[in-house]
């Protein structure tokens, strides 16, 4: 079924996902703060809205895919914000990783307008987004999930259903808490070995031969060896995810000391100028701290 879809946020993940909705034949209108990022989609027949409100008004489904909870507020709120364009019976789907507090607060404000809200954070890389191979954690009312399902299928390989938006938001934070601990532990181990004279490639090879091997270490280990830190998943976004996990832990009374340490390391990496580098560059920070050889 062809749907009228509004899509706000054409960053690394948003642009290919929106483009897949267009390719699936939906009637697509987009908005991005930096309008030039809509050029490709517009050149292929997508429409460009002048404001978030215009992008959201009169659509069957409205997606947001922005950096964090502050960016989400910026696109939703105000007289030209997307919420102002949404009407009773509409459905808003947030693909951002914006945390549990945002899921609760956006859900409440959407409900006040009679709008159904789904939190649908993404698991997967830019390449997976381009190939419509991401996994979506989709939380919210069953009726809204069913309405959104054809569009969600067009952009993902797998949909994991959860009954509440806040649970989808929380699930994503749990997944990235594991990922953050893995990447920080990996960087720390590489610098521990390299500062004592072990070559990086040998460290990666032996970790991969151990019971603790992981596809993550293989991919990121190669990037560390090549010192190629162009962002597949930027450190600033990873730091944001750990911060949001800390907030959820505080709200729920859960202890998360490992997550707090990982957040601090990622914040140090941001402060060192690596915020827009790939998370593999956490190892580079550790290697600098240890004054270790990078080969
Ligand atoms: P990117 O590539 O950093 O893209 C971020 C998007 O958010 C991009 O469209 C930005 O617009 C937009 N943005 C950021 N701040 C604002 C404000 N203040 N107002 C409006 N729009 C804003 O992130 P990804 O696509 O990799 O990730 C998206 C989400 O999925 C994120 O939560 C990840 O953690 C997971 P811009 O183009 O800069 O004008």
Architecture blueprint of SSEs:
Elements: E1 4-8, H1 14-23, E2 27-31, H2 39-43, E3 47-48, H3 52-56, E4 61-64, H4 69-76, H5 82-85, E5 91-94, H6 99-112, E6 116-119, E7 122-123, H7 126-130, E8 134-139, H8 142-155, E9 156-162, H9 165-195, H10 200-209, H11 215-226, H12 235-252, H13 257-274, H14 281-289
Parallel strand pairs: 1-2, 1-4, 2-3, 4-5, 5-6, 8-9
Antiparallel strand pairs: 7-8
Helix pairs in contact: 6-9, 9-12, 9-13, 9-14, 10-11, 12-13
Ligand NA7 binds near residues 32, 65, 67, 71 and 237.
Could you characterize the architecture of this molecule?
With 295 residues, the protein is an alpha/beta fold. It folds into two domains: 4-163, Rossmann fold; 170-290, N-(1-d-carboxylethyl)-l-norvaline Dehydrogenase, domain 2. The protein is built from 14 helices and nine strands. The chain has a six-stranded parallel sheet with strand order 3-2-1-4-5-6, sandwiched between helices. Helix 1 (14-23) links the parallel strand 1 and strand 2. Helix 9 packs across helix 12 (235-252) and helix 12 (235-252) packs antiparallel against helix 13 (257-274). The termini are far apart. The mean pLDDT is 97. Bound molecules: ligand NA7.
């Amino acid at each position: 079924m062809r749907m009228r879809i509004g899509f706000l946020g054409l960053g690394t993940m948003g642009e290919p996902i929106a483009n897949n909705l267009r390719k699936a034949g939906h009637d697509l209108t987009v908005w991005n703060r930096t309008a030039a990022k809509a050029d490709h989609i517009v050149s292929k027949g997508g429409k460009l809205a002048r404001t978030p409100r215009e992008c959201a008004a009169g659509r069957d489904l409205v997606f947001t895919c922005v950096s964090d909870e502050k960016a989400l507020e910026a696109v939703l709120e105000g007289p030209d914000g997307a919420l102002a364009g949404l009407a009773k019976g509409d459905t808003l789907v947030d693909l951002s990783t914006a945390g549990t507090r945002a899921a609760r607060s956006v859900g409440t404000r959407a409900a006040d307008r009679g709008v159904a809200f789904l939190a649908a954070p993404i698991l997967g890389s830019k390449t997976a987004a381009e190939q419509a191979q991401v996994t979506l954690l989709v939380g919210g009312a069953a009726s809204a999930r069913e309405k959104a399902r054809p569009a969600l299928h067009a952009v993902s390989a797998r949909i994991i259903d959860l009954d509440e938006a806040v649970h989808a938001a929380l699930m994503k934070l749990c997944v990235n808490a594991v990922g953050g601990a893995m990447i920080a532990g990996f960087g720390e181990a590489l610098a521990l070995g390299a500062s004592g004279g072990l070559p990086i490639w040998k460290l990666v090879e032996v970790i991969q031969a151990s019971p603790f091997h992981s596809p993550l270490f293989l991919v990121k280990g190669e990037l560390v060896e090549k010192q190629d830190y162009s962002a597949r998943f930027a450190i600033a976004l990873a730091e944001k995810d750990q911060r949001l996990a800390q907030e959820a832990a505080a709200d729920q009374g859960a202890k998360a000391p490992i997550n707090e340490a990982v957040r601090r390391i990622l914040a140090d990496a941001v402060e060192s100028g690596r915020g827009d580098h790939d998370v593999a560059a956490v190892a580079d920070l550790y290697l600098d701290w240890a004054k270790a050889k990078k080969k």
